[in-house]
Amino acid sequence: MANYGSVSPVDFPIPYKIIEEANNHLIEKPQEEHEALLATLPLQPSGTPNFHPKQPFILYKGAWIAKSLVRGALAMEQHFKSRPTDLLLVTSPKSGTTWLKAMIFATLTRTSYPLDQHPLHTHNPHQCVTNLERVFSTGRRQIIEAIPSPRVFNSHLPYSVLPQTIIDSDCRIVYVWRDPKDVLISMWYFSGKIMGGADKIATFEEVYNSFCQGVNNYGPIWSHVLGYWEESKQRPEKILFLKYENILQEPVKHAKKLAHFIGCPYSEAEENQGVVEQIVELCSFGKLKNMDVNNNEIPSMSAHNISPSYFFRKGEAGDWKNHLTQEMAERLNTIIEEKFKGSGLKI
Ligand code: PAP
């Protein structure tokens, strides 16, 4: 039997943090063999804001991605071996990652714990489901291999950057997108919390203009969404394509759809007992935002000291109306409608 450190193999995912702590002897020095390639990639245009002073965005396969995460993507391409039982949540940042991490993790583990003692009470969603390109960029590839199946990860990589192993294997992808105007606002506030004030780096207008040019974290956002949308039309059994606003509107319906897609549909008995509603409630914005575990500092989450509380702000649709002028909203809408033309997608 494979060696999982001190973690016993089970048939449901366990929080990534537990696996990492049990296997921290497997952490290596991050790879440096891709530095020559990284040095040749175009840097973000001057004048476009960046909230990571040491980490400019570089253009990799049509997407603006922070340098260390391109390093992670290259290491993934080289070393990651997808398993048919893997599940990957993909989002453009600020499109519902935290929420869907919780939903997927809770759905898969709902019979493994009483819901009032569920790991989501003691681990924030990002400690339950980790980001693949980030762990690969920090020398943790062997930990990824040590995780017993079924594994659940998230990624922000555009479809064009996913390693071939993910595209070729039978693993499944849940993709979530959100009105880009709300993504922009959410990103602005999140960056502000990290930097102790986003306007220390750039004005809101500069960030907006850059977003409209497609220069933002993993942007352009329209290419990100379209990449997964087009593929989900070809392979609906491979990619479940969801929208944040629709989940907000009908959470129970989407929770059932999600459970079905990830291979653990709710039984009639569960539905009658209200289990779907209980999972939706456990993962709801109000519930997660108020848990202690989502309000403590976890310095190891990134180079910055990110508190999990930063991932819970308003959790609503349409906050852009409080921040964008009508002209700004129309300009961004027009850009996106133009890009979406003929695809069947609407904001
Ligand atoms: P990430 O991609 O960096 O991990 P992500 O979780 O996608 O971030 O984005 C955070 C947004 O999701 C926040 O939106 P807001 O700024 O417009 O408020 C956050 O409030 C929202 N969010 C987090 N958890 C939930 C939830 N359980 N239900 C609904 N929205 C949520």
UniProtKB/TrEMBL annotation:
Keyword Transferase among UniProt keywords: yes
Source organism superkingdom: Eukaryota
One Pfam match: Sulfotransfer_1
E.C. designation(s): 2.8.2.-
Entry keywords, A to Z: Transferase
Key word Transferase present: yes
Domain (Sulfotransferase) ranges: 84-344
Cited InterPro entries: P-loop_NTPase (IPR027417), Sulfotransferase_dom (IPR000863)
Sample GO molecular function, one term: sulfotransferase activity
Top EC category: transferase
UniProt similarity note: Belongs to the sulfotransferase 1 family.
Protein name per its UniProtKB record: Sulfotransferase
Source organism phylogeny: Eukaryota, Viridiplantae, Streptophyta, Embryophyta, Tracheophyta
